[in-house]
Design goal:
It is a single chain. The chain is of the alpha+beta class. The chain is built from four helices and five strands. Helix content is about 50%, strand content about 25%. Strands 1, 2, 3, 4 and 5 form a five-stranded antiparallel β-sheet that branches. α2 crosses α3. It is elongated.
Length: about 160
Amino acid sequence: SWWFLSGLEEFERERRPLETRVRDARKLIMSETLVAEDYRRIESMLGQSLSDSESIADMKEEVEELARNVGLDCDPPSHREPVADPSLPWREYTVQLARCDGTMEALVSFVGALESAPVVYRVEKMTVAPAKTGGKITASLIISRIMLPPEEAPAAEAAEG
């Protein structure tokens, strides 16, 4: 019985560090799972750009539609060339609404619509002035969006490898 108790004590000494390592490994796996879920959520908000020209055209259309839906009358948007910094994993697309006419309530609703859109828009600059007619405003906005760059075709990857 002494031999059995001594073996049990040694087993207990060896089990405790293993139990701690298993608990730490479970925490790490849970943490990695949460990070992966966050990444997938953010990736879906950023979206995958198809090509620069398609991404710009889509963004112009989306921004115009949001403005129209809240009652702003905007000139067609212009755009800047996308910013593609090779050290960053995304591209930044920017459109400008040079002139939007409407009410202050419509402008506030438009900014709210941008904020609650399923993608991430950022109002970089906004100027607002009273319009010549009472109760109206004229605004200009510069709006940007970051997106993941287009994925390379599998054939291009195979040629590199």
